[in-house]
Amino acid sequence: MSKVIVSSLYQSDVFIMACRQFDKAADAINLPEDIRDRTKYPRRCMAMALPIKRDDGTVTVYEGYRVQHNLATGPAKGGIRFHQNVTIGEVAALAMWMSWKCSLVGLPFGGAKGGVIVNPSQLSTGELERLSRRYMQELIPFIGPQVDIPAPDMGTNEQIMAWMMDTYSNHTGHTDPAIVTGKPVSLGGSEGRREATGAGVAYLSKRYLEDLGISPSQATAAVQGFGNVGSETALALASYGVKVIAISDYTCAIHNPAGINLAKAVEYVKYNKVLKDFQGGEEITNEQLLTLPCTILAPCALERVITPELAPLLRCRILAEGANGPTTNKADTIIEERGDIELIPDVLCNSGGVIASYFEWLQNLQNYYWTRDEVLTKMFTILDRAKEAVEYQKRKYKFSRRLAALTLGIARVAEAKQRRGLFP
Asked: Which stretch of DSSP H or E encloses residue 337?
């Protein structure tokens, strides 16, 4: 029997939540004890001090992390988050979920995640560039196109990926676009990558509408979060004919039963940075948005927003998890017991982003590039295949959809570790 690791390094609500999900799934498939801890806990983590010179000449030291959860199935893959509330426990949980996500959809990647404790909106462009480059410089001994491939996440974007790629390329002495994904197209980024996560959330929502016999033109949607994932989800849903009745960011939520003018909302945020004071509907709170009557509710912001207190109040037919870990374990149980909500779990629902990142990595390695339609069509094919596998697992074992998705992802990683064995 393996010795159980009791780790205090990653302790946080979100990491405990991810571990409990793992334990439930491991029990459901009778995962052998001698492989559990090897599959569950991160392979390695890095914590780093990131001193940068500010525009006024002072020096500020930021704290950054990178957690590589699994390297048994291929190079690690995962985003980098710039946010003031980043913790190493959160980063570890996100890396764990990324492992199951990549495995579930059949990508040759392990899971990783990175983060820096910073509010990027409080940095000038020059300061943000210096922080991005310093973070990448510190990671160089531990990453590479065949080792660990970062990507953008909350608070980071194409420009930050461009700075990071340039930093790594200056170290190697040649342009190496495959070191990161989510880059500008002009630097080897993939057509369709920016909108891929949101497009995938919307596509799967449409597929589950079809399963329920609901026409998109008869459906409504509320989308929490109006960053890259949330805005692209809303736009893609609208393109299918769904009426988007509410959107939000951290400043407020906007509700309009007649439908939000998304083009105006995107333009407003482009110039004002936030939704606050957008004149496209009634201003409500994020909590009120989550309990609006709608066909599709898509939380596309932070973790743990669907709480046990909110779960009984949900009035959606489909809960499409565009964010990672938006539903707490207790809330998940309540939703499952209700039985009137079709939950599309995060490891399936938002996997479009990492699928498109995989395509970008492939294109960089081959130096051969695809059109946007090719990228999205290939992505939808993989999403359909993963959805079918999850539904089969759900029916066969009478699992919840989340448990079905997690057991598939976890079992594949565990098998890879067992097949590879333990290096002496």
From this structure: helix 329-338
